[in-house]
Amino acid sequence: MDPYSLFGIEGITWTVLALIILAALAAGWVDAVIGGGGLVQLPVLLLLPGISPISALATNKFASIFGTTTGAITYRRRTHTELRSVLPMAAAALVGSAGGAALATFLPVAVIKPIVIVALIGVAAFTAARPALGRTTTHSPAAHHRAAVGLAIGAVIGCYDGLIGPGTGAFLVFALVGLGLDFLQASAKAKVVNVATNLGALAYFVPHGWVLWRLGIVLAVANLAGGYLGARTAISRGSGFVRAAFLIVSGVLIAKLCWDTWGTGLL
Length: 267
Description:
- The protein has one domain (3-266).
- Helix 2 (14-33) packs antiparallel against helix 3 and helix 7 (143-163) packs across helix 9.
- The chain contains eleven helices and no strands.
- The longest helix is centred in the first third of the chain and has 27 residues, at 53-79.
- Helices cover 76% and strands 0% of the residues.
- The protein is mainly alpha-helical.
- The protein has helices at 3-7, 14-33, 38-46, 53-79, 87-103, 109-129, 143-163, 168-178, 183-205, 213-237, 239-262.
């Protein structure tokens, strides 16, 4: 049986399928360490002529949720991270992501990308300029203030993830570091919120039939394996490694978004 008969997607071959699976494995690893796996997986899916952009986005979300969930569970088991405090943020992120996915059909992405680029540059520059940031957990705001800020962060970043997506993990980690967590703890808790943002987007995509289930299941298995390996890597290497990965992924995100927004006009 050829891949076209199996998946019903124009332009897919065994070689292309192998490359997509490899990209999904790498995406799961990147997502588990710091977030940003969509940079690896989504562009590969968009290369297939038989997949519409919305189906690529929906299938990417379906596969990604397996990697982020695996990463979250692995962090929880090996670092004994307390997750109860992040659940309200996750709930707000779920609602925000569903709203963002619905908004994606009306709001031009080109309007938002320049704002995201500026925000990412600011986040990366601030982190690079403060080497001690996120090395250790510090005193955080009072519980009621922390909860209110967490809800706002979850809703805003969740909406962004449903609307566009790239950089969601990096924004979540930076926000949690800003609340006083070290990079490793922030990454662990960010995975829980990221699971919620994926669920929220899928709550909109699935009823509309945009997920390509057969391909999504294959990519989900690869994401799951990558998520497990990535979480193990981050835990063994510590906050310093996660901070370095954060800066690298932020740099790649900035470069890609700049190219998507202005690069095509240079050709």
